[in-house]
Amino acid sequence: MPGVLLGSIQFVEREIPDFVPWGGKQQLAIHKLLGGTRVIDAMGPDPNPIKWSGNLYATKAHPLPSVRARQIDAMRKAGAQVSLTWGSFNYLVVVQEFQAIYKHEWQIAYTITCEVVTDNPAQSVGKSVTLDQTIVNDFNAIAGLTTADLTIDALLGIIVP
Amino acid sequence: MSAITPAMTTAMAAAQAAINLAAGQGSIANVTLAELQDAIAAAEQAYAVVLAGSPVPAGINLDAINGISTLDGYNDFVIEVGLCWGEADVVAVLAYLGRIVGNLTLLCG
Lengths: 161, 109
Hints:
Chain A is an alpha+beta fold. Chain A has 3 helices and 8 strands, in the order βββββαβββαα. Chain A is elongated, with a radius of gyration of 20 Å.
C-alpha cells in the first residue's frame, strides 16, 4: 500500500509525510522501599500519539484538497475509530487533533494527531519499500507531472466559478 | 501548461538512465561507490537544470493599473497564475529529484 492511509483518506506522492513518529511508553508502578530497594511493576504499554504534518495538494484523482481536509476534520469531530496504515504498520486510532492552514484552494497545510486505540501488528500486511522502488516511484511521479498536468482553465474554474 | 522544459526532461532521463546503468540487473544499494559516482553526478545535474529553469512569479500589484481595461488586469492574472502553476510543477519535480539525490548520496555514507 503506497503512502499513508487514514480511514478512507489516502496521502499520496508529495503528501506523504517525511516521517511518522511511533512508539510509546511502558506504564510502570515504581515502589521504592527501605534500603533503596525498588520494585517495578510493568502495567502495560502506553503508546504515544502518532502525530505528523504535511500538505494536501490537488491531484488528478482529488482536485480539491479542501474537501479532503474537511473529511479529515469530520473524523476529528466524529471521534470515530479509524484505521491508520503506512508501510508495514497498522493502527486503530482516533483523530484527536487536526489543524489545517489554508494556503490555496489547491494546497492545505495540516498537522494531525492520532491517539492510538490498538496496535494491530497482525494486520500489518504492507510490504517495506526498497530503495530501488523508492527511486522508481519518484521518477514515475516526475513523469506524471510532465505528462498529466492540471490546466490553468481548470484552476480558474476553481477560482472564478 | 507544465513548466517542465524538454531540457529538464532530457536531464532527468539521463539521470534515470545513469541510475539504471549503475544498478545493472541488481539493486542500486549493492553497487560500489565508483559505480555510483556517475549516477549521483547525473542526478545532481538534473536537479541543477530543473532549478535553473524554474519560472519565477512576478506578483500582482493591485495598486498599479496595467492597461486600460478590466480584461488587461484579468490577462495579467492569468499570466501570473500560469507562472505560479508552472513554479508549483517545478518545485514538485525538484522535491522528487532532491529525494533521489539524497537517497543516492546516503548510499555513499
